[in-house]
Design goal:
single chain; six-stranded mixed beta sheet; 13 helices; 20 strands; globular
Amino acid sequence: MRTQVAIVGAGPSGLLLGQLLHKAGIDAVIVERQSPEYVLGRIRAGVLEQVTTDLLDEAGVGQRMHAEGLVHTGFDMLFNGERHRIDLEKLTGGKKVMVYGQTEVTRDLMEARQAAGLPTIYEAGNVQVHDYDTAKPRVTYEKDGQTHTIECDFIAGCDGFHGVCRASVPRSSIKEFEKVYPFGWLGLLSDTPPVHHELIYVNSDRGFALCSQRSETRSRYYLQVPLTDKVEQWSDQAFWDELKLRLDPEAAEKLVTGPSIEKSIAPLRSFVTEPLRFGRMFLAGDAGHIVPPTGAKGLNLAATDVKYLSTAFIEFYKDKSEAGIDSYSERCLKRIWRAERFSWWFTSIMHNFTELGDINTKLQQAELDYLMHSESGLRTIAENYVGLPLNFGEA
């Protein structure tokens, strides 16, 4: 098989890249080791920045998002038993965020790709990348007992943190930065109305909590738990009881509980790979970076990578220019490190770090108190939360 761009990974990054390239008349084949049902079964974030919603519109898949997504103009931060609202719209000159689950984004992109009859190979075994540092890169995979080869001009590694693309790069050619946090997020999804019309981020003496949502009838809640905890230790009732203890009395009273649809524990880490380009192979999304979910930057960062990468490929084929390809890694990393900083900082002020002692708790409280009483502090939170412009900081 011959194509212009071989995309490894059919998550939102790979599917969005494929859709943008299709719109520009560039051929791409997507190879995914899992089944479509498995990909759709992954429960992930649900807060989209303006950059991401604009990109989904550009890709022609934004209709259902606008019909069913929930526009949020702010969110609450709860500490010392009191809630404080961050007015995103007021503090950023009218910017907002959209609550629309990553699963739904993936579904919309899958359906658009299928409707256009574009090639996606699911359940591909033993996917390998070859010769990406030459002018003739290849991707091989096994399917139905046979080995298949895709010859291409470029490889886009959209295959996640555990994917083959980054793992195929010699250790001497890559540098990885990582911080692993000493706790995880226990998440519960339920068909219950959200406790509040906007998100609530909670700093309590029992640990962090987050009240989020996917729709007006489906809620997503999180609890900070030790990394040693197992999902099996947490019954639904135990989860709801603990969440109520971390909320303010008003929210605890309003909380509607119900059986969980899904429950899982996600470890938290900050992770960045440098560079993101290796010859004719490019990393995008979780293949190149991971952020703690505090602040909802993961999917939005991936979308930005895809925007830069799709633009670079379009310039290469339409304008015969390699400028976008050559600057891809540098442009992405600037934005990635800004998002990493915000996610690390937001995580550091909202979670319990018992190993750092009581002084850390007091410093957190002082910082939160300062932020809530400083317009500059509030604006810093709001600007980072809604997302910086694509060209922020560029000459």
